[in-house]
Write a structure and sequence with these properties.
Elements: E1 12-17, H1 24-34, H2 55-60, E2 67-73, E3 76-82, H3 90-96, E4 102-108, H4 114-126, E5 131-136, E6 177-180, E7 191-195, E8 201-205, E9 207-211, E10 215-220, E11 227-228
Parallel strand pairs: 1-3, 1-4, 4-5
Antiparallel strand pairs: 2-3, 6-10, 7-8, 7-11, 9-10
Length: 249
C-alpha cells in the first residue's frame, strides 16, 4: 500500500470532477467508447449517454448524482466515477474523491470558469488526491486556446505579435513497431491476430509500450511487416484461412 492508503497496484478508481457543464459526462462516454465498453458514443444533447441515465438527469440535461462505470483496457481495470459539477452537488465530489486513487479535473479555457475551478482544485489539494488537468472545449470559433510557453530568446529571434506553429513531444521512440489500438484483443488487451506466411490466422501475445488515442507501440511479439487483423469484434478465429493485404498509409 502507498503511504496515503491508496493501492500501488491492481484496479484503479478515478474520479472525474470539474465545474458545471465542463464536459465530464462526455469525457466518460468517450472513455467507454475508446476502451470498447460500449460500441457507440452517446451525446448529452441526445440524452443517450451511459452516464446521466436517470429521469431527473435526462430532464435537466445535467448530472445530479455520481455515475460509475468500469472498463478494462490493455490488461488494466479502471473504475471511473463521474461527479456532478453544479455547486449544489459539491458534497458528492467531497464524498467520492477521497476514496479514489486519482482525479481527472475537466475544465475549459474560459476565465469565467476559473472561480469554480479553483474550488474543485482546493478540495482535491486538501484531500491530498493526485490530479490531472483535462482542458476541454477549446474555442469553437478559432479552434484555439490561450496558453503560456517559456522559450529561450537569447538571439532576439522572437518578437511580440509573431505567430508560430509548435509540436509538443510527450515521449519518443524511433523505429518502433506501431499498430492500431483496435487490433489488440483478448481479456488482457495484449494479444493480436497475426496472418502467418501460410495465410493462416494465429493468436500471438505481445508487449505494449507508448500509445496515443489511435495507435500503440509493440515492444515484443511482432516484427515489421507482420499483418494483423483489424476487424474489431470480428468472427475470425485462430486457424482460419484468410487473404491479407497491406493497407498503404
Amino acid at each position: 500500500m502507498a503511504q496515503n492508503g491508496r493501492s500501488d497496484a491492481g484496479p484503479r478508481c478515478i474520479a472525474i470532477v470539474g465545474p458545471f457543464q465542463s464536459g465530464k459526462t462526455s469525457l466518460l462516454e468517450a472513455i467507454l467508447t475508446r476502451t470498447g465498453a460500449v460500441e457507440r458514443q452517446g451525446r448529452v444533447a441526445n440524452r443517450n449517454t451511459v452516464g446521466d441515465a436517470g429521469l431527473e438527469a435526462r430532464a435537466h440535461g445535467m448530472s445530479v448524482e455520481p455515475n460509475v462505470a468500469t472498463v478494462r483496457f490493455l490488461g488494466e481495470t479502471m473504475t471511473f466515477v463521474d461527479c456532478p459539477g453544479s455547486v449544489e452537488f459539491q458534497h458528492d465530489m467531497r464524498a467520492v474523491a477521497p476514496a479514489c486513487d486519482a482525479a481527472v479535473v475537466v475544465c475549459e479555457a474560459d476565465e469565467r470558469k476559473v472561480p469554480a475551478l479553483e474550488i474543485v482544485l482546493r478540495e482535491l489539494e486538501e484531500a491530498d488526491i493526485p490530479r490531472y488537468l483535462f482542458i476541454n472545449k477549446i474555442d469553437t470559433a478559432t479552434r484555439t486556446m490561450i496558453t503560456e510557453v517559456d522559450v529561450s530568446n537569447d538571439q532576439a529571434i522572437f518578437t511580440p505579435g509573431m505567430y508560430a506553429t509548435a509540436e509538443l513531444e510527450v515521449n519518443r521512440c524511433d523505429n518502433a513497431v506501431i499498430i492500431p489500438i483496435e487490433a489488440l484483443s483478448g481479456a488482457s488487451g495484449r494479444t493480436v491476430m497475426v496472418l502467418n506466411d501460410h495465410q493462416i490466422l494465429e493468436q500471438r501475445s505481445v508487449e505494449t509500450g507508448l500509445q496515443d488515442a489511435a495507435s500503440v507501440q509493440i515492444t515484443a511479439g511482432l516484427q515489421p511487416g507482420n499483418l494483423v487483423l483489424m476487424a474489431k469484434n470480428s468472427q475470425f478465429k485462430p486457424g482460419d484461412h484468410v487473404e491479407g493485404r497491406l493497407i498503404p498509409n
